[in-house]
Amino acid sequence: MNPEDTKNPKLTHIDEAGNPRMVDVGDKQITQRTAHARSIVVLPPAVLQQLMQTSGGQAELYTKKGPVFHTAIIAGTMAVKKTSEIIPFCHPLAIEGCTIDIYLNKAQEAVVDCTVKVTGKTGVEMEALTGASAAALTIYDMCKALSHHIIIKDTRLIAKTGGKKKLGN
Question: Which residue among 5, 24, 113, 141 is the active-site one?
Fold first, then answer.
């Protein structure tokens, strides 16, 4: 556990009376903020058998619904832009950059990396987590006809920059 997390922990979305609230970022400084989140999708053999190499050497799954990883990248990007509509206390942000990469690791799991960038008064951790999650869910949705043994695991924040607290690199 990060020692910083144990110093006077306080929920920021609860007011003094215990009521839920959106954090007031009016007095925060404008900085460039980034966040990198990751989800891992365990693909069973029935799904991996559909894996093909693209002309660029990247792995891609093709189903009757279309190219799975490419579609997941689009879905994840759309989710990043809609995060404030589905997470109640997220501020609407003018996203400046969003990159989603999907690749197979040594264990033949699909790794979804989502990196989001904004210049503003609040971070983009929830946007990056939402993008990685939505891309992983899209992989599941597009491949579920091949197997219901797909597992989405280990969705987490890898790194963030900007603001007071840093995480990762």
Answer: 141
